Amino acid sequence: MNNSFGACATPSHEPVRDLRRPIIAPMEDLPPPAANDDPYLRIHAVNIYVKDQERSLHFYLNTLGFQIASDARLQSGQRLLAVAPRDGMTILHLIQPERDSPQFRLIGRPTQVVFVTGDLPGQYREWRRRGVRFRNTPRLRRVVYEGLAPAGRNQVGPRDTAEEPPPVWGGMFTRFEDIDRNSFALVSFDEVSRALEAQRRAAAAKLEAERRVARELEIAKQVQARLFPQSLPPLRTLEYAGICVQTRQVGGDYYDFLELGQERVALVIGDIAGKGIAAALLMANLQANLRSRCAIAVEQPEELLQSVNRLFYENTAENVYATLFYSEFDDRTGRLRYANCGHLPCLLLRGDGAVERLDSTAPVLGLFRNWECPTTTRQLFPGDVFAIFTDGITESFNQRDEEFGEERLIDALRRYRELSPNEVVAAILDEVRRFSPHEQRDDVTLIVARCRKSDDPNQPQLFA
Predict the structure, then answer these.
(1) Residue ranges making up the domain that contains 74
(2) Please, what is the end-to-end C-alpha distance for the chain in angstroms?
(3) Alpha-carbon dihedral sign for residues 253, 257, 261, 262
(4) Under a CB-based contact definition with an 8 Å cutoff, are residues 325 and 359 in contact?
(5) Which SS3 state, helix, strand or coil, does residue 260 take?
(6) Beta-strand relationship, 79-84 and 264-272
(7) Which pTM value belongs to this model?
(8) Which stretches of 99-166 are DSSP H helices?
(9) Each residue of 71-91: pLDDT tens digit?
């Protein structure tokens, strides 16, 4: 077997075929650090030259109690085999070189690899019972620090030996051999072992906490996804669509389509101040308030919104608020009744290209107990298009720190107005992503609706 990779890890020029499922993940499978994390540097693996990989694998697994870190084969037939101790922090590549290669002469020599354990006598007894060959029994040595602090102890300046003598503590040492007489050091330092174990446990606890948070966020994401509309109440004269793309796994943007009865549907968008889990919880609170009270919306929309504001005010902290655009479309008359509670203007694009902005009619939700919310109406006509959106669209920035802005959104609505609302939503989101290709800063939510034209074969009569 030609050992072309020598002291390297997996060669990058040949594809690898997996032989078996690793017991622990190879280092290549570890997730890359986040963009804002400090880059890390660590030793990937140590090469150990052996005469027979399968025989050595049996020794490391069954005698030493190691685990398989990876086991793969190159197209050339070379086997890439790696094992690791139980904690998985050290990887040994078991390399079987050709008999006439320089690497073959390295078999059976000291490896300069040092293993540390918290219980060297116990490890020594266990491995001896399993047949591991040791060069000597564990020996106790005295270790004295001079000038440097031991592991786990912080030191700001030079040690004042008169005030604090250097620490003295014991360490145990021995050497053992594998089946090919490759020898390794096995040591146990009192203070070093404790620091190493504390570090290992802290790393394991951090990893478990991160996994738990990731699982909980995934569950929260699935729950929040069910809070958005799962179906669209049917209308004869209006077609519409909506979407929410969160900057994190969960967020504070909210949109909804509420069937009010009497051939009316409410199209709603809200934006909670803040991001993440806190904003998502408040979003769920706002959605529950609206859906539980929407029965009174047809006759008394102002009373509905006042009730929602009062509940939101009472259930949140004094500095929490939400913007809300509430609109109600009447399928019989084509009238749109709306209240804009501190939200961005809804854009109404008329059939002749004129643009109307449906501006605020009331303050934001949640800041005031006594709160008035007047509504107003617009008559819609066949071909009219309107868009309700959050600032995640208009305040998306490009690399020159320019905003996508309202004018670009209006231009997009004009260009895509003949498409279906679903297609318009997708096209606008695609434009925003091209304009702002870097990481999304804010939740992006958009509703697009269009009054069907009279020549639509599916709609023979409009606004009877």
Answers:
(1) 16-216
(2) 85
(3) positive
(4) no
(5) strand
(6) unpaired
(7) 0.55
(8) 120-129
(9) 988 777 788 999 999 877 789
